[in-house]
Design brief:
With 592 residues, the chain is of the alpha/beta class. Among the domains are: 84 residues, Gyrase A, domain 2 (2-Layer Sandwich); 95 residues, no CATH class; 185 residues, Isoleucyl-tRNA Synthetase, Domain 1. 53% of the residues lie in helices and 10% in strands. The strands form four sheets. It has a four-stranded antiparallel beta sheet. It has a four-stranded parallel beta sheet with strand order 6-5-10-11, sandwiched between helices. A three-stranded antiparallel beta sheet has the order 7-8-9. Helix 16 packs antiparallel against helix 20. The longest helix has 25 residues. The protein is globular and about 90 Å long. The two termini are 35 Å apart. Bound molecules: arginine. Arginine binds next to strand 10.
Length: 592
């Protein structure tokens, strides 16, 4: 379906042409004075210069041509030369009827691209913290939006599973349990199936090892040696590593499932280990990589740079690979195995420069094609109320699990409170289930409603509120509509036969016009990779609906046709809201 603004603009363009002016002047926008009109066109002002004529005169001549029009009503020319207008109720009705019947509400899918989205990026054996939350939440939503828009999208978690952290864990394990069979070089048999540690032990081992290595040089040397042995394939170390990965991944899967975040690929840094030497060789042969202070680097600065962009380091002076090296090799691997048109990365914005270097290096060394799009979406920090990075009450790093638990507890409290004020009973078990669904919406909406690059304040009280620009408010609106639809079905029967009618009052028309913006909004959200645009839209839509709802007695309406028309409008509103929250990565409960 065409976008409603384009249809309206077409009428205006025709009128400009009929009045003898350039049709291009007839571009219509949403009104910035909603008290006066619904849409406006400022073309007469632009035309004044070109035609040496007073803008008001041009506007009047154009308005004249639109007095009998199937789309526009109340077209007025106002000083100094604006064209203000409304749209006909019948036109909006027909537009929404078509939208209700169309696939994806009439959204026109762009040319399909193949994309890989790299998000989540947790490090094995380290607990997920709130920093990983944003990557997972935003990445999941972007994946869903791009997929909905018709692109072929692969989501890859890109585990941090290969660096010094692995050597640290192995070293600490060896200090604690030196007799483990994995450390016996002469052992040739099979290793046990079960890991010699649990996830909780692992999560305690890593920080302990990391702290020791910072204080004790010899310990650090051991860890580096263990990393080296692991990377060069020492059997026992590899077997231990397999255990670490298996235990961590099982735990990560559980955590991400709770967040409704899914990955198609569970690859990691380790997966490209074997292809690094070939890549490095090619970079040297191509004349891109050279030695500098013992390290191997590729220059990536460009003439137009206004800031210093240091060379991209490919290998350290001891020949070890770096974070860059695995990222570059992963790009090579992705290009060879998936042939993507576009790669999107989600990390903290502190990695902006890093990705700039990596992308430039990948282009320069021809790991990607000229036209492969490489995009880094650097997000801001989630802060506490004090404006500093979010911490636990004790000042430590907040574990994701605990954060979710706190939100859920608060949600249960709010759900009970709400039931109490409304005077109905709730079943405790159900409240717990509902709290999980609503809690997730609170976290995700709280995050996604901000432009990704901005920092935001995690405000438990505000995020979990049933009122205002929050996830629970959107869900509450959906639940309200569901309940009206259910009552209608009980009283009046089937929902399938209802059709949208002409608006009879202002709030109904506003709701209808809000719905009509859907396809343009999705197009922008996808093109700009901007989930926050969906949040802003559903907030406006929910407000428009609630306004209409408070002004209209829907279920007690006497005219069956009118009532059915409203019900059809509600059903469309609900479908649009539910589609949008699915794109954001959460869902609505049956009751709240
Ligand atoms: N593991 C990294 C971290 O915790 C994030 C990985 C992001 N993805 C990437 N391809 N570099 O900081």
């Amino acid at each position: 379906m065409q976008k409603i603004l384009d249809l309206i603009s077409e009428e205006m363009k025709k009128a400009f042409a009929e009045a003898g002016y350039d049709a291009g002047l007839g571009r219509v926008t949403l009104s910035n004075r909603p008290d006066l009109c619904e849409y406006q066109c400022n073309g007469a002002m632009a035309g004044a210069k070109k035609y040496h004529k007073a803008p008001l005169m041009i506007a009047q001549e154009v308005a004249e041509k639109l007095q009998e029009n199937a789309v526009l009503s109340e077209v007025c020319a106002v000083a100094p030369g604006f064209l203000n207008m409304k749209v006909k109720e019948s036109f909006v009705r027909d537009y929404l009827r078509e939208m209700s019947g169309a696939e994806k509400f009439g959204f026109q899918t762009p040319e399909s691209k193949k994309m890989i989205i790299d998000y989540g990026g947790p490090n094995v054996a380290k607990p997920l913290h709130v920093g990983h939350l944003r990557s997972g939440i935003i990445g999941e939503s972007i994946k869903r939006i791009c997929r909905y828009a018709g692109h072929e999208v692969i989501g890859d978690i890109h585990l941090g599973d290969w660096g010094l952290q692995m050597g640290l864990i192995i070293t600490e394990l060896q200090k604690r349990q030196p007799d483990l069979i994995y450390f016996d070089d002469s052992y040739e048999g099979e290793y046990p199936k079960d890991a010699p540690f649990t996830i909780s032990e692992l999560e305690e081992i890593y920080p302990a090892a990391s702290a020791k290595s910072k204080e004790d040089e010899a310990y650090k040397a051991d860890a580096m040696d263990a990393t080296y042995k692991l990377q060069s394939g020492v059997r026992g170390y590899r077997a231990l590593w397999d255990h670490i990965i298996a235990v961590s991944v099982a735990d990560l899967k559980k955590n991400y499932a709770n967040l409704n975040v899914e990955f198609d690929l569970w690859k990691g840094e380790s997966d490209v280990h074997d292809i690094i030497p070939g890549m490095v060789e090619a970079m040297k042969k191509g004349g891109y990589a050279y030695e500098s202070d013992g390290a191997l680097v590729v220059d990536v600065k460009e003439e137009t740079d206004t800031k210093e962009v240091p060379p991209c380091m490919i290998l350290k002076s001891d020949g070890a690979s770096l974070y860059n090296t695995t990222d570059l090799a992963t790009i090579m691997d992705r290009m060879e195995n998936f042939h993507p048109d576009k790669l999107i990365y989600l990390t903290d914005k502190r990695q902006d420069l890093y990705f700039e270097q990596v992308f430039r290096c990948a282009k320069k060394t021809k790991l990607v094609n000229e036209d492969t799009e490489l995009v880094h979406i650097g997000f801001g920090t989630m802060n506490g109320r004090d404006g500093k990075p979010f911490k636990t009450r004790e000042g430590g790093v907040m574990r994701l699990e605990n954060l979710i638990r706190e939100i859920n507890e608060e949600m249960i409290r709010k759900i009970r409170e709400n039931a109490e004020t409304k005077g109905y009973e709730i079943d405790m078990e159900q409240a717990v289930e509902t709290a999980k669904i609503v809690g997730l919406a609170a976290i995700k909406y709280g995050d996604l409603s901000n432009q990704a690059s901005k920092d935001y304040i995690f405000d438990m009280d505000r995020f979990t509120s049933f009122e205002g620009d929050t996830g629970p408010y959107i869900l509450y609106t959906i639940v309200r509509i569901k309940s009206i639809l259910a009552k209608y079905e009980e009283q009046d029967g089937d929902l399938t036969g209802v059709v949208i009618d002409e608006a009879v009052n202002g709030s109904e028309k506003s709701l209808m016009l809000e719905l009509a913006k859907y396809n343009a909004m999705i197009e922008t959200a996808c093109e700009e990779i901007a989930p926050h645009k969906i949040c802003a839209y559903i907030y406006d839509l929910a407000n428009a609906f609630n306004h209409f709802y408070h002004e209209t007695k829907i279920l007690t309406e006497e005219s069956g046709q009118k009532k059915a028309g409203w019900i059809a409008l509600l059903a469309l509103t609900k479908d649009v809201l539910e589609t949008c929250i699915d794109l954001l990565g959460f869902s609505a409960p049956e009751r709240m």
